[in-house]
Every structure is written in C-alpha cells, then in structure tokens.
C-alpha cells in the first residue's frame, strides 16, 4: 500500500511540473507578424504556398516568451 501511495505521489509531482500554459494566437495579423519575426524561412514557404500553418501559440520557458508553430508541407 505504501508503494502505491508513493507511486501515485511521484506521478502527481511529475505531471504537475510539466504543465505548459499555451496562449493560442487567433488574430491573423499577429500570427503573421510572429511567424515573420521568429520563423522567416517558414514564412517564405507559407507565402509561396508550400506549407500550411495550423496553429501558432506562445508559452513561457526559463522566464522568456517562446513562439511555437504547427505546420505541414502541401
């Protein structure tokens, strides 16, 4: 029983530490500006119609705001 409680508490601690709060960007102009600034090569592929961008979101890591995109090639 003690092992089960220990296992449950370890799983709870690890799962609570790995939670990342994402802020999804819905405004088109803000999305494009973030992509241009942070991913210029992917922005050029997007302009040429070679990739489709599904999602753009920001999150905080090590005290700095980071930008992440989900995209795929056509």
Automatic annotation (TrEMBL):
Top-level taxonomy: Bacteria, Pseudomonadati, Bacteroidota, Bacteroidia, Bacteroidales
Top-level lineage group: Bacteria
Name of the molecule in the record: Uncharacterized protein
């Amino acid at each position: 029983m003690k092992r089960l409680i220990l296992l449950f508490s370890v799983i709870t601690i690890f799962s609570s530490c790995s939670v990342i709060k994402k802020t999804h960007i819905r405004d088109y102009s803000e999305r494009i500006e973030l992509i241009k600034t942070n991913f210029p090569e992917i922005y050029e592929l997007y302009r040429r119609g070679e990739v489709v961008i599904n999602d753009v979101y920001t999150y905080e890591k090590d005290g700095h705001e980071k930008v992440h995109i989900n995209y795929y090639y056509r």
